[in-house]
Inverse folding.
């Protein structure tokens, strides 16, 4: 099976207007299975903002190796729900991998409305990669409703001068600065020597201002790159 994911970072933020902090990483290999360990610098920064560790993994000094995937998989949606195929389509889940909990956790980001954790995959820039991400920085920009609509193709640019994130990727619509690709997800743009990606608006939430926008990110063939 093709490898899509290098690792998954567990991020946390105090609230929607705050930056995401990488507090841990989840890795997988054939000999040790799935393991989780905290990132000390991230934990220190998060603790100063009120973070209280992930409930099932309370010790920041321990490398957890038992039942890691089973615990994090509790965040995944019920596969018996009536609209499960629509859910899979939204999160760009490869039908062949829908039973792979590690992959599904990465694709869906383990989002819950009850906490501020997100599971963000660092992807390999493989040819048929496709995943859902989010536009960041919208709160600060206060863009008017209607500036984005479902299906819009966004321009992107590596922001190598960004002081906060060396892997930042800036997004534009008709030359207007929209925001950035979500942290961690942006790294794949820098890793690809071909740098051929299509960024398309998947859904928007707006009420007077553009509040939230999700995007699909797809690697594309070089022969089609001029279309984007």
């Amino acid at each position: 099976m093709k490898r899509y994911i290098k690792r998954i970072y567990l991020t946390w933020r105090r609230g929607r207007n705050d930056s995401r902090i990488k507090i841990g990483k989840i890795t997988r290999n054939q000999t040790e299975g799935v393991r989780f360990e905290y990132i000390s610098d991230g934990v220190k920064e998060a603790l100063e903002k009120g973070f209280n560790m992930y409930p099932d993994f309370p010790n920041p000094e321990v490398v957890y190796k038992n039942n890691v995937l089973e615990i994090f998989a509790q965040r995944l949606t019920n596969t018996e729900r009536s609209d499960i195929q629509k859910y899979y389509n939204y999160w760009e889940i490869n039908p062949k991998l829908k039973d792979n909990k590690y992959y599904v956790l990465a694709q869906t980001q383990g989002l819950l409305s009850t906490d501020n954790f997100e599971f963000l995959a660092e992807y390999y820039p493989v040819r048929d990669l496709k995943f859902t991400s989010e536009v960041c920085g919208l709160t600060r920009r206060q863009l008017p409703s209607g500036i984005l609509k479902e299906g819009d193709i966004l321009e992107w640019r590596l922001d190598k001068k960004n002081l906060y994130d060396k892997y930042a990727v800036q997004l534009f619509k008709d030359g207007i600065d929209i925001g950035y690709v979500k942290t961690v997800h942006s790294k794949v743009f820098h890793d690809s020597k071909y740098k051929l990606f299509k960024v398309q608006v998947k859904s928007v939430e707006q009420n007077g201002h553009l509040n939230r926008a999700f995007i699909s990110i797809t690697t594309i063939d070089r022969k089609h790159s001029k279309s984007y």
Q: What stands out?
A: The radius of gyration is 18 Å.
